[in-house]
Protein: HAD family hydrolase
Organism: Halalkalibacter akibai
Amino acid sequence: MEFSPRAIFLDMDGTILNHSNRVTIHTKEIIDQLRNRGLLVFIATGRSYDEIKGVVPDGFQVDGYITSNGMAGYIGEKTAFEHSLSKELVERIIEKARENKVYYELFPYGTDRITLKQDQSYVEAEINDPKPDDVGINEWLSRKQAIKEEIVWADHIVGDKYSKFYFFARTKDHINKWKNELNLLKKEIDFTTSISSLHNVEVMVANINKATGIKQILEKFNLTESEIMAIGDSDNDIPMLKFVHFSVAMKNAPEHIKDLADDVTEFTCDEDGVYQYLRKHFIL
């Protein structure tokens, strides 16, 4: 790789996260080395900010975070920017999700994710064992953990600012039907959808994605897209991979993601692919 970036943006799930939903100590250490050499390293993830702490090693540090697919940005623990779904949209979508019995998690800023109690029975039923063969183990484990420890079963919608909606279905037919319902709703209220697997879809503010989040972060650091690279693996990374000067797809990414990238890692996320790639091109 001949390009020498000033900053690197890293996706989490399927990229620096393995399929056990962990960032390895090797990945932490390579990020530390790059930052010590003067490179800026950022996370650009579909996860909310509060979801990150539980999957990274102790002492994990980067220069900033873009979370919820571009809905919010953080430098250290300070909020750099923040977009919010409207309560009107939230209420309409929950009503539609209930009609379609779709698993959902709503992420208010500053508090735990919620699902309404009246929807608890069908939401829990979506992640009853056995795991469907074509659902990724990382997504299945995340949903199990959310049900067990992370979702607050609320009597009513809480908060007035929301970073994203996450939806999941155990069958592709169910989630595809739900995507169609969301597309119909877009004709009434404008918003953006994004997917990171064949069994999920997320809702954000209209025209928001990882690339728009990167643009806002770059302004804070006086950087341009010509100075940055990114590594990702799924559809919600496409705007980011198209935006940066040099894009890298994970070996475990689908072929259409690899086709649009400038390079592909030699190893998967379960083989410390990001660590291996960054070590080869920046340390050795």
Summary: The chain has nine helices and 14 strands. The radius of gyration is 18 Å. Residues 172-186 form the longest helix (15 residues).
